[in-house]
Specification:
binds tryptophan; two-stranded parallel sheet; 3-stranded parallel β-sheet; 338 residues; single chain; 55% helix; mainly alpha
Length: 338
């Protein structure tokens, strides 16, 4: 009988080991990963080599990798269901990156939006790794012959380049080795956009408006109480300004429907007290984050468990990577003379 794994489509996703997971990541990407891990043959990895473009200290790099691994596991990514690994544990990726670099052209790399952006904002660190970032990303993806890559808007161009490099390789060596990796779009109802607490826009790592999964309840209460509101409605059923709408959106994500309805009625009848609403919102956020936070704290210090997960992931990922690389070497003509 054919094993179930064979007929599942393959998904690859990389996570940079910088920053911590916030509510936006959790209700966006992470919850989709939790579903995907059972429906697809998933490779989720920590892109530690990619993060070297910004020259982290060895201690920071190491801490970042552990933290990200612990946070994803705490959210429920299951190392038995998905292959979770660390990029640098699979050296085959960098070998494929070398081969792909021979057919990646300076012009197309220089035209990449993210590269141009980095070249502009950090002119004193425009290194070659930054230039070939999309090539390494392509190697990550096609080494497992991925069919789908869940990506946000900011990664769409990189994924398009991965398709270009995959097709170019196939054409050059007259062999359909790599499938074209397609963007994975979650269905509408899963695409929850979590707003920030600063009145506008969505929760983001860099914007400093986020609530992190690891944060302790006192800090969460403080942040929520400081969230931007206004002087309150002056007319019945008044349209909500964005900062207030955002609080309601957050509440819809974390609170019970009755709670949301109660505050909607309070707002519509001009009786709302934002302080009360925020207090309730903070408690409901804390109810979501607390079990995850406790798991993170437990896991991040459990070197033995993290090591076991990383080793198991590396073994599974290498098996797939070695298989592809054997075919790649053969096609290129890198054949052993002995
Ligand atoms: N570039 C991605 C980011 O910044 C991380 C990444 C590296 C990635 N390799 C990948 C994502 C492969 C998907 C597939 O978020």
């Amino acid at each position: 009988m054919m094993s179930e794994k064979k007929i599942k489509k393959t998904v690859v996703s990389g996570i940079r080991p910088t920053g911590n997971l916030h509510l936006g990541n959790y209700f966006g990407a992470v919850r989709s990963f939790l579903k995907m891990q059972h429906d697809f043959n998933c490779y989720f990895f920590i892109a530690d080599i990619h993060s070297l473009t910004t020259h982290p200290t060895p201690a920071n790099l190491q801490a970042g990798v552990r933290q990200v691994l612990a946070e994803y596991l705490a959210c429920g990514i299951d190392p038995e269901a998905a292959t979770i690994f660390i990029q640098s544990d699979v050296p085959e990726v960098t070998e494929l990156y070398t081969y792909l670099n021979m057919n990646a052209y300076l012009g197309e790399l220089e035209r990449t939006t993210s590269f141009k952006e980095k070249a502009r904002t950090q002119p004193d660190n425009v290194n070659a790794g930054l230039l070939t970032y999309p090539v390494l990303m392509a190697a990550d993806i096609i080494i497992h012959k991925a069919n789908y890559v869940p990506v946000g808007k900011d990664q769409e161009q990189h994924l398009e380049m991965a398709r270009t490099f995959a097709n170019r390789f196939n054409r050059m060596y007259h062999h359909k080795l790599f499938p074209a990796p397609k963007p994975f779009t979650f269905d509408g109802k899963d695409m929850i956009k979590v707003p920030g607490l600063d009145g506008s826009g969505k929760m983001g790592k860099s914007s400093g408006n986020g609530i992190y999964l690891y944060e302790d309840p006192a800090d969460i209460r403080k942040k929520v109480m400081r969230a931007v509101t206004d002087a309150g409605p002056t007319e019945m059923n008044q349209v909500k300004p964005e900062p207030v709408e955002n609080l309601f959106t957050l509440m819809k994500i974390v609170s019970a429907p009755e709670t949301v309805e109660y505050f909607e009625n309070q707002y519509n009848s001009c009786q709302i007290r934002y302080g009360d609403m925020k207090k309730q919102l903070a408690e409901d956020i804390i109810a979501v984050t607390t079990p995850i936070r406790e798991r993170i704290l437990e896991l991040v210090n459990d070197s033995e468990y993290l090591g076991k997960v990383a080793r198991m992931g590396a073994e599974k990922a290498r098996e797939s990577a070695v298989r592809t690389l054997t075919e790649v070497r053969e096609l290129i003509g890198l054949r052993k003379l002995y």
